[in-house]
Design goal:
Length: about 210
């Protein structure tokens, strides 16, 4: 039997816009670091690369793009970071990631474009690293919209977000953790922290890498 190598954990936050992913992922990284875990916060889209800048321009409605093309660009923005992510995990760094392939699929499929269904949307993601834990911040769209600020970027409308939430329900797998995101910041954090600690402990003990959609 091949011996398992210690590595960092890939912990992913997913959910509709304004559900608290950025607050919680930032807080989780701080908490992990202060307990001695080597952790970094990553996010997708990664708007710093040249592909990321094209995505940013699209999200800010400064440019138009074909729906299939922008979908592939979001996926390519993960592929261009794949080796760097794997290298970090191999070095023992835990990556807390704010959105990944599940957002990619849930958002494009929510547009209802003929041909761009869930299966089509999943295909360019196949082979990317599968997270060790998914923290799905569950929040009704009405509650997320009430947090203020829907409408700043493309996709931030209640109708689209409702379709996105329905798609997350279809993509959810039984190993995901569904967190009630309507609680206080500290309550949500405590739930996330427990799952993260467990994932970090498993990966330190040695865990194989899994791929989407294993
Ligand atoms: N989004 C994000 C996609 O449409 N596809 C993707 O693959 C990813 C990662 O971009 N409304 C959408 C979801 C968000 C928007 O993300 C920007 P954020 O976390 O608001 O910066
Ligand atoms: Mg947003």
């Amino acid at each position: 039997m091949a011996s398992l190598v210690a590595r960092g954990a890939f912990i992913l936050f997913e959910g509709v816009d304004r559900c608290g992913k950025t607050t919680q992922s930032t807080k989780l990284v701080e908490a992990l670091k202060s307990s001695g875990v080597n952790a970094e916060l990553w996010r997708y889209p990664d708007r710093t690369t040249s592909m990321g800048q094209m995505i940013n321009s699209y999200l800010q409605s400064k440019t138009e793009m074909d729906d299939g093309a922008i979908h592939l660009l979001f996926a390519a923005n993960r592929w261009e970071k794949r080796a760097a992510m794997e290298a970090k995990l191999a070095e023992g760094v835990t990556l807390v990631v704010d959105r990944y392939s599940y957002s990619g699929v849930a958002f494009t499929a929510a547009k209802g474009i003929p041909g761009l269904d869930l299966e089509w949307c999943k295909s360019p993601e196949v082979g990317l690293l599968r997270p060790d834990a998914v923290l799905y911040l569950n929040m009704p769209v009405e509650a997320a919209a009430a947090r203020g600020g829907f409408g700043e970027e493309r996709y931030e409308t209640s109708d689209l977000q409702k379709a996105v939430r329905a798609n997350f329900d279809k993509l959810r797998e039984d190993w995901w953790t569904i967190v009630d995101a309507t609680g206080t910041v500290d309550e949500v954090h405590a739930a996330c922290r427990a799952v993260a600690d467990d994932a970090v402990a498993k990966c330190v003990a040695g865990a194989p890498y899994a791929r989407l959609w294993d």
